[in-house]
Write a structure and sequence with these properties.
331 residues; Rossmann fold; Helicase, Ruva Protein, domain 3; 2 domains; 5-stranded parallel β-sheet; 13 strands
């Protein structure tokens, strides 16, 4: 890899973080995880209580990227055609002949904000499945390829569960990262009050374009990962599956563990984190950094876990404690 060329790309990525920081106070780890997902070519869910600027965060990211951006507000009456598009009847004025033409929906964009995705029924949620996995949409026997890059950021509210529709496990697995947003610190909350109640409105500058993002995604895959770390990630993922020689907490509290896609996500995100840190090889610390957002939505808890107040993050922590590290890990 050309070190100077890569550093120039990463400096622009750091500028994206700076532009977001003009609008969003704190939440550095959340912004980093969003960028890791973008660099890895995956999609992410942002979960947090109301008022934590989830939508504003995604909107600000889209402004810092010279990419097409669409927002869909998910509601109970939203239909699949409202997302992927539909056929409309048109007329050729020269011949008078009528024909059907596919009208692209808002999914035909680079950055798609699926706001409050758990507010719409599974039939509509599933309209995103093919788009997220294949970067294409099928309609009326035809296949329509989406623009590249294609990046879905979905938000959901963990409270007010009445009238919501939890995402099916098959769709959750399509999301590379599940990002949890916590309350700001006391100092950050003071800064939020100061910024949002004054006249000043920060102007977010465009930093990266589509070609830059695609190039970063290509560079991520060139980051080196040694065989010992690949084996370690495979062991971690397999240890989340009950009765596969798993830690006691997994056998007691999980119905299902993570599939192979979790290992792929962990390696890709670890590579992205290494590159973002200016390194060209994955370390054990990179894997640890991305483990919780990669795994937390891929573990299906049983009733006993809910009764005992055990979260998926607790399970991930116990798995890492129970799986032996490589003998000579790169840290």
């Amino acid at each position: 890899m050309d070190k100077e060329y890569i550093e120039s790309k990463l400096s622009r990525l750091n500028e994206v973080t700076a532009q977001i920081g003009q609008v969003i106070v704190g939440q550095q780890s959340v912004v980093e995880e969003m960028l890791l997902s973008l660099m890895s070519g995956g999609h992410c869910i942002l979960e947090g209580v109301p008022g934590l600027a989830k939508t504003l965060m995604v909107d600000t990211l889209s402004k810092a990227l010279e990419l097409d951006f669409h927002r869909i507000q998910f509601t109970p009456d939203l239909m699949p055609s409202d997302i992927i598009g539909t056929e409309i009847l048109e007329e050729d004025h020269s011949t008078g002949k009528r024909f059907f033409k596919f009208q692209h929906g808002p999914v035909f964009t680079n950055v798609l904000l699926a706001d409050e995705i758990n507010r719409t029924p599974p039939k509509t949620q599933s309209a995103l499945l093919e788009a997220m996995q294949e970067h294409a949409v099928s309609y009326g026997g035809q296949r329509f390829v989406l623009p590249a890059p294609f990046f879905v950021l979905a938000t959901q509210n963990p409270v007010e569960q009445a009238g919501t529709y939890p995402l099916p496990e098959a769709q959750l697995d399509r999301f590379l990262l599940f990002i949890r947003i916590d309350y700001p610190s006391a100092d950050e909350e003071v800064e939020i009050l100061a910024r949002t109640t004054s006249v000043a409105a920060p102007d977010v500058e465009t930093v990266l374009g589509a070609e830059d993002v695609l190039e970063l995604q290509r560079l991520v895959r060139e980051v080196d990962t040694n065989a010992a770390l690949l084996r370690y990630v495979a062991d971690i993922v397999r240890a989340t599956r009950p009765h596969y020689g798993s830690p006691p907490m997994v056998n007691e509290y999980l119905r299902w563990g993570a599939g192979p896609r979790a290992g792929q996500a962990m390696i890709l995100c670890a590579k992205a984190h290494a590159l973002l840190s200016g390194r060209y090889a994955v370390t054990l610390d990179d894997i640890r950094r991305v483990s919780h957002p990669v795994l937390r939505h891929r573990l299906l808890l049983n009733f006993q876990a809910e009764a005992d107040g055990i979260s998926s993050d607790d399970i991930v922590t116990s798995v890492f404690e129970g799986v032996p590290e490589p003998e000579s890990p790169i840290r």
